[in-house]
Known about the structure:
The protein is an alpha/beta fold. The chain has helices spanning 25-33, 65-70, 73-89, 112-123, 136-140, 144-153, 168-181, 200-208, 246-251, 277-291, 309-323, 335-338, 345-353, 356-359, and strands at 10-18, 39-44, 48-53, 101-107, 159-163, 187-194, 234-235, 237-245, 258-267, 300-302, 330-332, 361-362, 386-387, 393-400, 404-411.
Amino acid sequence: MNQLPDEQRIVITGIGLTAPNGNSLSEYRENLLAGKSGVSQYETRYMGDVLAGVCDFDELRYQKRKEVRRGTRAGSVSTYCSHEAVADSSLDWESIDKSRVGVFLGITEHGNVETENEIYEISQFDYDTKVWSHHHNPRTVANNPAGEVTLSLGITGPHYTIGAACAAGNAGFINGVQMLRLREVDLAIVGGVSESIHTFGIFASFQSQGALATHEDPTKASRPFDRNRNGIVVAEGGGICTIERLPDALARNAKIYGEIVGYAMNSDASDFVLPNHNRQKECMELALRRADITSDDIDLVSTHATATDQGDIEEVKALRALFGDRENLAINNTKSFIGHAMGAAGALELLGNIQSFDDGIAHATINLDDIDPECHLPQIVANEPRDMGEINYILNNSFGMLGINSVLIVKKFA
Length: 414
């Protein structure tokens, strides 16, 4: 196995998150191991009650009321998670050269919420443009979530968002790794965020596709791989980390959660929404080559599966082709707990598993009561956590519309 020079090795040193079932890594992990869902009933404009993964974090912990009103929900999620990650990293923030810090956040979409709200508001006043908010433009530009972080933390280095559909959470990490290796920045704040539940359009679109989950018990609505799955539970949230070059982290005796050793992104080039298992397999294989390991080295696979019929089946085909019936492998799904957090999904799913490096446990896929034969994999962790003894490599899948695929491989640091 080839070892990268230490200057090219990138490690995770701080974590901040908000998920429908937790507002810190410890709370989130505890609820995942306990099988606690964060899905609840939620009311959205024009449609009434739907099911969603709703976050309940303190927006005012790091923002003033005026900043919350002026900004966006995605901006508040990003600001909260970024502050939490910086605090968790134990960086001496006041002494850091902020021009050498970059913010790279994945998003699925941005601006929909504000545009829908303002069109609704203007419709109540006979479409008089005088009531249109003068904050519309800075709220709806695509870089808003990352930009709000720079304003809050005084960061003067580069910032942008990565629009990569539901592959975006991993893409945020990948961009940060690349910028650190290029020495464009010395510290990267990375991950993914989503405010998707605040736009009725996403619910209406999934419903029109027949892909919006329903269930009399909201906590049982998100059912990846299950024969009775009936669609996506839309969720909001954010998962953001500080990542650094290894020598910098060691020099300050930083806590290291894991090392990012492999990544890949590719495109299906085959359909607007239907995934392609061949391209997904190729994406995983490329990430493995970059990590200079084989599929036999992976201990835990965090799946993308969204509880859609064909989506789950295609990913299982890719996993089956790559891993076969190999023993000593755990395959799980975090969406079964929180729903699909869109741009935040890949980041939150990685962070839901990252403490398995410490405890050796793979959290379950809940609501898997009657597995679809086409989704059968002997390694799926169903309904109860599995003690793996030791977990050294996690492979994290995130795939999105327009055929964009992303894979991140994280290694236990020792």
